[in-house]
Specification:
The complex is a heterodimer of chains A (about 450) and B (about 425). With about 450 residues, chain A is mostly helical. Chain A is built from 15 helices and two strands. In chain A, helix 3 (about 85-100) packs across helix 4 (about 110-150), helix 7 (about 225-260) packs antiparallel against helix 12 and helix 12 (about 350-380) runs antiparallel to helix 15. Chain B folds into two domains: about 70-195, no CATH class; about 210-430, Orthogonal Bundle (MetI-like fold). The two termini of chain B are about 45 Å apart. Chain B has helices at about 10, 20-65, 90-105, 110-115, 125-135, 150-155, 175-185, 195-200, 210-240, 245-260, 265-280, 285-310, 315-320, 325-355, 360-365, 385-395, 395-430; strands at about 70-75, 140-145, 190. The longest helix of chain B is centred in the first third of the chain and has 46 residues, at about 20-65. Chain B is flat and about 95 Å long. With about 425 residues, chain B is mainly alpha-helical. The chains are: A mainly alpha (about 450), B mainly alpha (about 425). At the A-B interface, helix 2, helix 5, helix 7, helix 8 and helix 9 of A face helix 2, helix 9, helix 10, helix 11 and helix 12 of B.
Chain lengths: ~450, ~425
């Protein structure tokens, strides 16, 4: 049905284009000068038909399943859904949907079969309704745009207005995405905070989200204090930053000041490769190579190292961050005005003295901005820690221990379990909200520092 | 270097540059120069070393999975195990066991059971399919070449330390001896492992392949491209060429910059709450994955497209405006075609990032165990990075090398995409 709808849309748009163009050409061959080129008359018709019809189809696609589902569920024999929680209702919905799709397992209750039949007939009717409405809409647009064709009609301006509107809506999508993120996070978090008090979440020092989902399940009681999770995130971030900042900074200094152009031309792309490797690969590297190596080293030195030590996750994350910091530091050093460098060298300072005493201090704001962005990346990084860090939240700052992070908890709480009304899954959204706010604050701060510094020398 | 830092003899006029103090001072400064140089070079080499270890680990592990140990066997299909009237329902497990007992006539029943474990679980189905296709085979021999099961695959590749204590191995001495006997008969071969890219996921490492994941990733990337490319270009043209200096434009700008730095998992949360929760889209569908990736890629494409548009010199615009083109005719007729190579380069790089993205796909359920190739973007499926994640989590020894091989496949795709981007840039991008 959808394919037919799109085919109709396509054909109608082309027809509109050709009809209007022919009409405009006819006027011109009659000896009258057109205000707009004939092609614009055609385009005007095409856009007028296509844009509303496309919107209609998309809206229909989004709303149809929801509306039909609701109609089917309301049409169930009275009392079937009484006393069932939302999970059970979702299960029934899914079963009806799969029966309607032709996948029948066992012998379902007759009322389910009936509902599935209803669903199919509703879907069929909805398809025809869509086609009817679509035809009417497109016919109206076709007739209207054809009636506008005249020598004086400013078709080009009309087309350009529509195109500008389309481009503006493309740009506004970015705002919608942000609004969507904020709304969905806040909405789900509010539901979480209606079950778990905000103060317990913000100041609690125990994180044990494995609470029972059903009444008969044996599990811990559940505690939702995010402090140990935050602490774990910070431990791994600190490890990653303390390793990557010196290496990144030093390599930037070398590339900027000492390296020959040929070495630079080779070394920079190789460093960039490190940034292009997917994080899931780093995670695998951490569990396969780094963590066992660290454990062996710990055993040789007589230090107990946890199998999923924060050092492994943080260290591997540092490798990922090296090119990031290096390129930021590189840009910051290169942005220091030539006059400062030349002045220092002219006074007899060596290159290293110029770097450490003149260029570096001048570049500090830019470098700091880069390091802050790296921190925000380390906090938000997911796959490395999901694979290499631990699951248990504990109040420790020892990097040799196993710690957990915000992102690890989000993934473990949500993977494979999408019941939207237990505090366990909703807690993930509260953590996500915190993650979003923290990284957003760091990013804004970093961008502000970088921008302010740029203005200083411009 | 302030004046007071200097030694007294350097402060006076006409100091002696050849004095021991001056020489020592120069030597010290030269030394610190060398130190910084060496430390800097060391830092770069350390980063290279890490990259080297990473790649070496992946290649040395992954190359093992590019070949798969197979066994070639003549299987007698006896009528007592398979009913000619209904060949699909035969006892093919017994058929395989019988074939092994022919190869090892002296083995008793328990040993026979152990012997059939050399073959992958797939063997009986291979025989069944052949017999169903040609029922005339019943009573005759079928020649099959099937993968051996994972422990023997590891053994054949030399990954089992046969000198270690028997309890620490997955194979006993007898089992190893049996396998060696097969090797001596020349029944064991190690052909290229095409199943890695032509088979779907499986619980058994020797059978697991990436086809479903590759198709899933391709669908997701296609959806991602179809959505983010037009939206990105539209937004970039608007912001770069038409946006009035007003509050709305500023808000959009700040928004796009911030969106580019939002952690990827937050997009996963958005997709989970909105696409799956509110709109009820199917779990684990590449369509939803593509939609999510499109939202993440959008800022990248917008920023790249704006830079490409900015790089087109104003003289082009002025010339076109000068001969009477409207602003949009200038943009769509002249600026956009010239900026297209740059936009495409940025788009491909953005898509390459999207291809490696894992976390949001985990949240929308693209990490399920799926043993079929998705026929449409709306069927549940995995993607390459999530498949890597699943395999990395599996305990079987054989999955370690398969994970590395899958990573090499993923990196191969990334290299190809980036090479294409570089090629486009070098071939078509003009510098003014």
């Amino acid at each position: 049905m959808i394919a037919i709808a799109f085919l109709m849309l396509f054909l109608a748009s082309i027809t509109g284009y050709l009809v209007n163009r022919q009409a405009a050409l006819a006027i011109r061959s009659g000896g009258t000068r057109l205000h707009s080129l004939a092609g614009f008359h055609g385009l005007y018709s095409l856009l007028l038909i296509m844009v509303p019809a496309l919107l209609l189809i998309l809206l229909w696609l989004v709303l149809q399943p929801v509306v039909i589902e609701r109609m089917v569920m309301n049409g169930l024999p009275a009392g079937t859904l009484e006393g069932l929680d939302s999970g059970a209702v979702q299960l029934i919905q899914a079963e009806i949907r799969s029966i309607a799709g032709g996948r029948v397992f066992g012998t379902p209750d007759p009322w389910k079969l009936e509902a599935a039949e209803r669903m199919n007939s509703l879907q069929g009717r909805a398809g025809w309704l869509l086609l009817t409405v679509l035809t009417g809409l497109m016919a109206a647009a076709l007739v209207f745009s054809r009636s506008r064709v005249s020598a004086e009609f400013r078709a080009r301006q009309g087309v350009e207005r529509i195109v500008l509107g389309l481009m503006l809506s493309c740009a506004v999508v970015a705002i919608f995405v942000t609004v969507g993120i904020v709304l969905s996070l806040v909405f789900e978090s509010l539901r979480f905070f209606s079950m778990v008090p905000v103060t317990e979440f913000l100041f609690g020092t125990r994180w044990e989200p494995q609470m029972p989902i059903r009444a008969d399940q044996v599990a811990a009681e559940g505690a939702f204090g995010w402090i140990p999770v935050l602490l774990g995130t910070l431990v791994i971030t600190v490890v990653a930053i303390t390793i990557s900042v010196p290496i990144g900074l030093m390599s930037a200094i070398y590339l900027n000041e000492f390296a020959s152009t040929r070495f630079r031309a080779v070394a920079k792309p190789i460093l960039e490769i490190l940034a292009g490797i997917p994080t899931v690969v780093y995670g695998f590297f951490a569990i396969l190579t780094v963590a066992p190596a660290l454990r062996a080293a710990g055993a040789a030195l007589g230090i107990p190292v946890a199998p999923n030590t924060a050092l492994a996750a943080g260290g591997v994350m540092a490798i990922m961050l090296i090119p990031f910091i290096s390129s930021f530091a590189d840009d910051a050093l290169a942005a220091v005005p030539r006059s400062l460098r030349d002045g220092s060298l002219a006074l007899g300072a060596t290159r290293s003295e110029t770097v450490t005493k003149v260029l570096f201090p001048a570049a500090i704001p830019g470098i700091a901005g880069g390091v802050l962005l790296a921190v925000s990346r380390a906090i938000g990084e997911t796959m490395i820690v999901v694979m290499a860090a631990g699951l248990m939240a504990s109040m420790t700052i020892n990097p040799l221990d196993s710690v957990t992070t915000i992102t690890v908890q989000i993934v473990t709480l949500l993977v494979g379990d999408t019941e939207f009304d237990s505090p366990k899954t909703l807690a993930a959204f509260a953590l996500g909200l915190m993650l979003f706010l923290v990284t957003l604050a760091i990013n804004i701060l970093a961008l502000r520092i970088v921008r302010k510094y740029r203005e200083l020398y411009d | 270097m302030t004046q007071t830092d200097l030694p007294a003899d350097l402060q006076s006029r006409g100091h002696d540059w050849a004095s021991p103090r001056a020489r020592a001072n120069v030597a010290r400064r030269r030394r610190s120069e060398t130190v910084l140089r060496v430390v800097g070079l060391g830092a770069i080499l350390l980063a290279f070393l890490m990259l080297g270890i990473l790649l070496w680990t992946l290649i040395s592990q992954g190359s093992l999975a590019f070949r798969q140990t197979h066994i070639t066997l003549n299987v007698p299909v006896a009528a007592e195990h398979v009913d000619p009237a209904d060949p699909a329902k035969g006892n093919y497990r017994r058929v395989i066991a019988a074939a092994m007992s022919e190869t090892f006539p002296e083995a008793d029943t328990t040993e026979q059971r152990a012997l059939s474990k050399i073959l992958s679980n797939q063997a009986q189905f291979v025989v069944r399919d052949k017999v169903v296709a040609d029922p005339g085979l019943i009573g005759n021999e079928v020649r099959i070449r099937v993968p051996v099961s994972d422990p023997y695959d590891q053994l054949a590749k030399g990954q089992v330390d046969t000198t270690s204590a028997a309890e620490t191995r997955r194979l006993s001495d007898v089992e190893i001896a049996n396998f060696r006997a097969l090797e001596e008969q020349g029944l064991i071969s190690k052909p290229l492992n095409w199943a890695l890219v032509t088979a779907n996921d499986s619980r058994f490492p020797e059978l697991a392949g990436l086809k479903g994941a590759i198709v899933g990733s391709a669908y997701a990337l296609l959806i991602c491209f179809l959505i983010s490319f037009p939206l990105g270009i539209g937004a970039a043209i608007y912001l770069e060429e038409f946006a009035p200096r007003n509050r709305l434009s500023d808000v959009i700008e700040v928004n796009i910059n911030n969106l580019a730095a939002v952690p990827s998992i937050v997009f996963g949360l958005l997709a989970l709450a909105v696409f799956l929760g509110w709109f009820g889209m199917p779990r684990g569908a590449p369509f939803v994955g593509g939609l999510t990736l499109a939202l993440m890629t959008l800022p990248t494409i917008i920023i790249a497209a704006r830079n490409a548009l900015k790089a087109v010199p104003p003289s082009i615009r002025e010339a076109a405006l000068g001969v009477g083109a409207s602003k949009q005719q200038v943009v769509f007729g002249h600026v956009l075609p010239l900026a297209m190579p740059g936009i495409l380069t940025g788009t491909i790089i953005g898509l390459a990032q999207a291809l490696g993205e894992t976390a949001p796909l985990l949240l929308i359920g693209m990490n399920a165990f799926v043993t079929s190739t998705p026929a449409t973007p709306f069927d549940a499926s995995t993607a390459l990075p999530t498949q890597i994640f699943i395999w990395a989590d599996s305990p079987e020894r054989g999955f370690t090398s398969r994970t590395s091989a899958a990573i090499l496949v993923l990196l191969g795709f990334l290299v190809m995409m980036n090479a294409l981007a570089i090629f486009l840039r070098n071939r078509f991008e003009r510098r003014w």
